[in-house]
Amino acid sequence: MLPPLVLDRNSPVPLHFQVSQHLEQVITSGQIPPGTLFTSEIELGERLGVSRPTMRRAMQQLVDKGLVVRRRGIGTRVVRPKVKRPMELTSLFDDLKSGGQSPTTQVLALEEIDSDEALAAKLEVKPGEPVVRVVRLRSAAGRPIAKMTNYLPTGLVDFDAETLEEQGLYALLRARGVQMHMATQVVGARQATASESRLLDEPRGSALLTMERTTYDDHGTVVEYGSHVYAASRYTFETSLMRS
Amino acid sequence: MLPPLVLDRNSPVPLHFQVSQHLEQVITSGQIPPGTLFTSEIELGERLGVSRPTMRRAMQQLVDKGLVVRRRGIGTRVVRPKVKRPMELTSLFDDLKSGGQSPTTQVLALEEIDSDEALAAKLEVKPGEPVVRVVRLRSAAGRPIAKMTNYLPTGLVDFDAETLEEQGLYALLRARGVQMHMATQVVGARQATASESRLLDEPRGSALLTMERTTYDDHGTVVEYGSHVYAASRYTFETSLMRS
DNA sequence: CAGTGGTCTAGACCACACC
DNA sequence: GTGTGGTCTAGACCACTGT
Ranges for the HTH gntR-type domain (chains A, B) (predicted)? Predict the structure, then answer.
């Protein structure tokens, strides 16, 4: 029923993760169709050569990803995939890229400025402290789709506009070892101003999606604050929510 | 350092949950300020009289809620609370209510209709099958804030308009034993139509936030499909995202 | 070095669903 | 009953951090 799996017990990758990765691949590749009842975790653990707690941990990760449901007395069942992935801790650049589109970026500004009171509060730095301001125009399929304004602590920025046009801000931060861990977002809407209409190639007064996001690393330090506007006629946010 | 906790080992509530609930209460009440280093999980477990795996499980739940961060070799540290709650599996009614506002609801329609092809696909029923359509106007602080259109399988609806104006759709479903487990949402924006402007007491052409949501129970069955519009000048969605 | 959290194991008892 | 997942325990080894 299940393709064999060879575990590498000397790998730094935890066993439970190796197991769940394997099962996830098996499920998403369609080798086990939705509705199928899994072999019990006990037998599965024996077959793979891991203990029951380890097996359970792997299973729990599949539950968290919405790939299976478990019911006491019944078993573990593969569900039809319903989860939409986006609006995670990824950037618009990543979203478009993995969506098959070809995003391009134009850096409109990349400069150091002195933070005013409001901005300093957002970034949790001292008022007046210099921060970096980045303004970018993101396009997909040849049309502008979003104007993105980001503010970052000066220490995190050591790239130039050219690099930024190729890689996406989040990818660059990650490559520099920044571990983004959490973000809070506020999504709203408003009408486009005249300049926004021109920039995004939209009719005057058309609706824009707005998003403000503050991103933190795993110490709780602010990594970035962004204020973005999207052409609502061509972009939406998709999310999945799971009960706790 | 920690207030004492008496565990009820005969309670159906799992020990790990009793522990994590207690610790969460201690943290959110401010008895342990942000930045504090916790006692080690071993000593904490001994003190509370639970095994280390149980203690770890309780701790992990605090991590999942973004209340603490754990670092190997260092310890467990309380972080400043950053998580915003809403946009979970709750309804606008619940959101407003817990936000201290006093929401009111006006039921504009509550009727059984025959589903067309598109709607049947959304609800995963046979085309032509009757479904229930609910249209409501939600107000807060005396002003309209959202027009909400929902479609549900006929079997789930046994309430009347009056009940619906008092309780909120999600609360009613929950009270009837429906276990909502997952939802997928698409958030967008567009300009208000003439009738929407009138209904929501907004200027013509103003921006609306739109949200389409499909909710599933834990079997993966569709519970509800909703298409809502919000007056963007008075409502936003707030979310927290955590790196898996 | 000592202390922390991260991983893994072996075994036990329980609640629940189905036969 | 039998088999499932849910909970809990006791103990072990490891990787990492600070001194």
Answer: 13-81
For residue B202, tell me if it sits in a domain: yes
As for how many domains chain B has, the answer is 2
Residue identified by tokens 């793979």 is A48
Residue B91 predicted with pLDDT over 80: no
Tokens of A88: 């995670």
β-bridge mates for residue B216, sequence order: B182, B222
Which residues have CB under 8 Å from A80's CB, separation 6+? A34, A35, B220
Query: How many angstroms separate the CA atoms of A213 and A219, rounded?
Result: 17
What is the 8-class DSSP label of residue B37? B
* For residues B112-126, average pLDDT: 92
More confident residue, B185 or A56: A56
Q: Does residue A71 approach strand D to less than 7 Å at its CB?
A: yes
* Closest chain B residue to the Cα of A241, Cα to Cα: B183
Residues B124 and B224 both lie in one domain: yes
Q: Could you give the residue ranges of the DSSP H alpha helices within chain A?
A: 15-28, 41-48, 52-64, 92-98, 117-123, 161-167, 169-175, 194-200
DSSP conformation class of A44: H
Residue B173 pLDDT level (bands cut at 50, 70, 90): confident
Whether residues B163 and B74 share a domain: the answer is no
Between A80-84, A112-116, B166-170, the lowest mean confidence (pLDDT) is in: A80-84
Strands A180-191 and A207-217, how do they pair?
antiparallel
- Mark whether B224 and B149 lie in a shared domain: yes
A41 and A63 belong to one structural domain:
yes
Residue A148: both structure tokens together:
């993105």
Output the pLDDT for position B79: 87
Structural domain that includes position B68 = 15-78
Q: Indicate yes or no: CB of A83 within 8 angstroms of CB of B184.
A: yes
In a domain, A174, yes or no: yes
Strands A143-153 and B130-140: unpaired
Q: Which pTM does this prediction carry?
A: 0.83
Question: Does the C-beta of B44 come within 7 A of strand D?
Answer: no
